[in-house]
Design brief:
By secondary structure, the chain is α/β, with parallel strands linked by helices. It is 38% helix and 21% strand. The chain has a 7-stranded mixed sheet with strand order 3-2-1-4-5-7-6, with helices on both faces.
Length: 200
């Protein structure tokens, strides 16, 4: 890689990470963010590795934040038009639109995912959840997981978390849980989990 390309890539990474914006949003609402800093490059690569889907399918990322995982997905070869981001914070959704041209960004609540995607023609092949579900009561966790199942019943969903054990009570939610990756290099250390509804 040429020096100019390295410089440009480094500048793009800084634009995406935007730690100041991330920290301000964490201060405003810690329950929406889950961490005080964006995910590490190692965690982002782990998520991107496990978000593979067919060429005619779309990856849907929920709680995209400043877009560090979104960028890792694109760097892994995913075409921008095959990535849909859902971000509840309007300021961060606007940041994502500026930082990731060609990617569809929806400012909305992931619990309303079926309505947000209605009529879009999107065929969901992978769902990635960056919302800190572990902080929510069971009824709210169920609202999220039911929404994921409605749009991607075949694929289940990926969820990255800073918990040592499963961040979701899988059996109570009717889910099968499998930890796919763990990285001590993230701050805080993080895991990537895959969940699938036991009913299909």
């Amino acid at each position: 890689m040429s020096q100019q390309m390295q410089i440009e890539r480094g500048a793009a990474a800084k634009t995406i990470a935007n730690a100041g914006l991330f920290f301000r949003r964490w201060l405003a609402n810690p329950l929406q963010m889950g961490s005080i800093v964006p995910s590490s490059a190692t965690l982002c690569r782990h998520v991107a590795t496990h978000a593979a889907c067919a060429p005619d399918e779309t990856v849907v990322e929920l709680g995209a934040g400043t877009g560090v995982i979104s960028r890792a997905l694109l760097d892994s070869g995913l075409a921008p038009h095959r990535l849909v981001l859902v971000e509840i914070v309007p300021e961060m959704a606007e940041h994502l639109r500026r930082a990731l041209p060609g990617v569809r960004v929806i400012a909305g609540d992931a619990r309303a995912l079926p309505a947000l995607l209605a009529g879009s023609g999107v065929k969901v092949g992978a769902v990635i959840c960056g919302v800190p579900l572990v902080l929510l009561p069971l009824a709210e966790q169920r609202r999220f997981t039911d929404a994921f199942r409605a749009v991607g019943p075949r694929c289940g969903f990926l969820h990255y978390s800073y918990c040592i054990t499963s961040p979701l009570p899988a059996r109570r939610l009717g889910l099968e849980a499998r930890r796919l990756a763990w990285t001590p290099l993230n701050f805080p250390p993080a895991s990537v989990w895959h969940y699938r509804h036991t009913g299909g």
